[in-house]
Amino acid sequence: MSAADRGPSRLDGNRIWRVETPHGPVLQKLYAERGSWLHAWGRELASRLRGGKTGTRAVSRRATEARLLALWREHGCDVPADLSARHPALANERTLVLEFIAGRRLSELLADAALPRPRRDALIGRFAADASARHARAREFREAALVQEHGGVQHVLVAPPASARGTEPADIVAFAAGELRFATFDLENAFTARRSLAPLLAKEIAGCVRSLARCGRPDEARLAADVAAFVRGYGDRTMLVAATDFFLRNASPAWRAVWALDRWREERRGREHGKFVMLEMLDDNLVHADSAHA
Amino acid sequence: MPSDTETTGRPERGGVAPPQGPGGGPRVAPRAPGAPGAPLTLQLEGLEKTPLAGEGNYVWRIPFAGGTDGFAVLKVYYGSRSSWLYAKKTLGNLLLTGRTSQMPRARFRHEVASIRLWEQHGFRCFGMHPEVRVAGLPDEGYMLYDWTPGRHFREYFKDGSVPLDERLATWRRWVPEWHRRHMTAVREREPRLIHENGDVKHVMLWQGGFTYFDFEICFRSRNVRDLVGREILAYMRSTGKFFGDELYERLMDELVAHYPDRTLLLAAWEHAFANDNLLIRFARRLDVVLKPRHQGRYSKYSVARDLKRRLDAASLTRGG
Predict the structure, then answer these.
(1) φ and ψ at residue B7, rounded to 5 degrees
(2) pTM for the structure as a whole
């Protein structure tokens, strides 16, 4: 039974439509509530109070995304342009009009088992380098909104460079990773500025590393190589060590209890490559790299 | 105008010429003899009157020098219904359904004001001749309109002699104009830009453009987005009812593909199932359950579900 049949009065989630305009295609994104009003309010309170994040109601998510798109662009991060002002017929209090980027998700590219290792390393390395540069800006400006609340390769669109407009997304293999556009999308939620940045950055790094395990059905060897490529691309080893320490060797009993609970949940769900498994892989990589360096 | 037949004197193949004037085509501009717009008084007696409407208003085609094919349309708002019926309908409109009055003068005023408003926004309606007086009829009780021998959507779209591709192209040309009116109505919070009696009987192809009529009653609510949703359902229901399932499906597909603002299309589903007002939402749920006719293929609820299913399928996040 579909959601529409169960609850015809609910939209239950966003809609994104491609709209052809005289200036080319754009995306019209409609922000809608998810679940019943009780769920929506419960999630809103949990997100704001426990998670230290922006609101999860449709109106909050729209406002957050509009704010973050502008902020990220201001800091030189590649995100879809907010074209709402240029398309008043499509923009309203429930929608944003966004640039249509003809590309493919990084997660789709990485899910291809036939992708050659050097190409794979280059794509992951570029993704990690972009994240690292953004994290450096976040620390410099003490701006929590520059930390992606649910970062990962599934929220990055890889597209041909602007100079090669008209190139088919399938042809992106023709470009070096450094030439491609890596545009981050889905910025509906953000951490609020009151929190210390270190835990937020650790969470995003954990999310990024875990997302590598969600691309297709990777084996251990492929994942280890992917993590190594991420470490090389990210560059700032101090940040990566801080992230693994935050989850695996946290001094705070409260955090340790939270992570123990998370780990237990993960094992109970039988996730083969959950967050902690991937963090341990990252940690191993950092330790081995350190010993090799020594 | 209330009649489905009053303007079908000369069938026209629509979708040929590009729009030329406000609303997509040149206005018919018949003039009384003498100076343009000069006052003219007609005598009702002795006029050769061809009735165009059924029940309700009296609508006649009459000879008119300078009119299209030498004709004009005289519409008399004091129609065949009894005063009691007008009063009863007025009470229902004002107290229950959020519409304007049914009384003759009120219908005259709303129709004239709506036509002026629609034309001001570039939507073509029947040209009016307020300078023409008719002896023996009460003031604000009648109006002389241009005789516009276009072709109703209702006839055009089910005409098998017009190639399907041509009909679909006409629909695709009309959909953006339809959207522009909806968008303008929402932006200006103007319920009079919503076609209260809107369906494929009240749009006409004329000289390559589109002509709208029948504005006697308007909605009063300022929740114009909801009214847009209602109007979309009314139009699409009428396509199913008059054209059959196959064409209904095609027109629905084309609508979702070419109507620019999908959120306004979604307003149709919201009108039926997700009204902001919980009381109205509850009443509509009851309506669906209690009235067997709402289980029909072209009930507004079925059409709303059809529309939402297509919008979901078109969404990049919930592709079917």
Answers:
(1) -120, 20
(2) 0.83
Q: Looking at CA atoms only, how far is residue B118 from chain A in angstroms? A: 19
Q: Which residues of A touch B263 (CB under 8 A)?
A: 28, 30, 92, 94-95
Which residues from A are below 8 Å from B when comparing CB atoms? 4, 8-11, 13-19, 21, 27-28, 30, 89-90, 92, 94-95
Could you tell me whether strands B132-135 and B40-43 are parallel, antiparallel, or unpaired per DSSP bridges? parallel
* Contact across the interface for B260 and A4, Cβ inside 8 Å: no
Cβ distance of A8 and B263 shorter than 8 Å = no
Instruction: Map chain B to HEC letters.
Output: CCCCCCCCCCCCCCCCCCCCCHHHCCCCCCCCCCCCCCCEEEECCCCCCEECCCCCCEEEEEECCCCHHHEEEEEECCCCCCHHHHHHHHHHHHHHHCECCCCHHHHHHHHHHHHHHHHHCCCCECCECCCEEEECCCCCCEEEEECCCCEEHHHHHCCCCCCHHHHHHHHHHHHHHHHHHHHHHHHHCCHHHCCCCCCCCCEEEECCEEEECCCCCCECCCCHHHHHHHHHHHHHHHHHHHHCHHHHHHHHHHHHHHCCCHHHHHHHHHHHHCCCCHHHHHHHHHHHHHCHHHHCCCCHHHHHHHHHHHHHHHCCCCCC
Q: Does residue B80 sit at the A interface (CB-CB below 8 Å)?
A: no
Measured between beta carbons, the chain B residues lying within 8 angstroms of A14 are 317
CA atoms within 13 A on the CB side of A276: 16
ipTM confidence = 0.82
Instruction: Write out pLDDT tens, residues A234-284.
Output: 999 999 999 999 999 988 898 899 889 988 888 888 777 888 889 999 999
